[in-house]
Amino acid sequence: MSTRDFSGQGTVSSAKPFTVAEDLAHLSVSHRAYLQRHPQWQQLAVGALVFKAGRLLLVQRSATERAFPNVWEVPGGSVDSDDETVLHAVARELEEETGLHVTSIDHEVGVGVQFRTGSGENGTNWLKLAFEVAVAEQEAEEIAIRLDPVEHQDYLWVEEEDVRRGEVNGTRLEFMTADQRALVLEGFRLKREAA
User: Fold this and answer.
1) Which of 194, 166, 193 lies closest to 58 in space, CA to CA?
2) Are strands 43-52 and 76-78 parallel, antiparallel or unpaired?
3) Residue 77 vs residues 22, 120, 122: alpha-carbon distances, Å
4) Secondary structure letter of residue 34 according to DSSP
5) What is 3-194's CATH number?
6) Who contacts 80 (Cβ-Cβ below 8 Å, separation ≥6)?
7) Are 105 and 21 contacting, i.e. CB atoms less than 8 angstroms apart?
8) Which end of the chain is more exposed for a tag (fewer CB within 10 A), N or C?
């Protein structure tokens, strides 16, 4: 896999470098530039799939969240206008939501999850892109996850079968949408095929 080196500058507070697979170069653009190229979307979000020993990191949205409280998701969020690129947003969001530091963005998972917030003329069309990433903390025996309790209340490392079953150790795995669950399963499929 060829990669490009990113300085990690911009809004990623760790300012640590990360590499990006060459086939993701088209995402080395700003939020604004991406939306100009894809006018069907008014907003863009990103997600990061972090695997360790065959398990995937999921975070549970806070019970106080206005939208989709208590559901499980991969870490991620909105691309901000001050993110240097869409890919820098992946690193920033993962660090903000978990304290983990991206070292590489390896490939895109799926083709994006489409959703709409609001209704009628005031509605907003979103696209959420997801990526498998490697993190600096991946080699540690135990990865310390730091959650912001305003956004997330819990995390789990899950296996593919847990997601298919919708439960792990007595905890129900409810996702925002069926598309979000499908994206997680696609991440497991791609990981399995790469092994």
Assistant:
1) 166
2) antiparallel
3) 23, 23, 21
4) H
5) 3.90.79.10
6) 11, 31, 89, 92
7) yes
8) C
- The 10 Å Cβ neighbour count of residue 110 is 20
Question: What is the H or E stretch that residue 154 is in?
Answer: strand 152-158
Give 119's pLDDT tier (boundaries 50, 70, 90). confident
**What pLDDT, in 10s, does the model give residues 41-52?**
999 999 999 999
> What DSSP designation does 89 have?
H
- CA–CA distance, 152 with 97 (Å, rounded to integer): 8
Q: Taking residues 100-129, what's their average pLDDT?
A: 91
CA 139 to chain CA mean position, Å? 20
Instruction: Give how far the C-alpha of residue 161 lies from the chain's centroid of Cα atoms, to the nearest Å.
Output: 20
| DSSP calls for 89-158 | HHHHHHHHHH---EEEEEEEEEEEEEEEES-GGG-EEEEEEEEEEEEGGGGSSSPPP---TTTEEEEEEE
DSSP conformational letter for 74? -
The pair of structure tokens assigned to 57 is: 């990191």
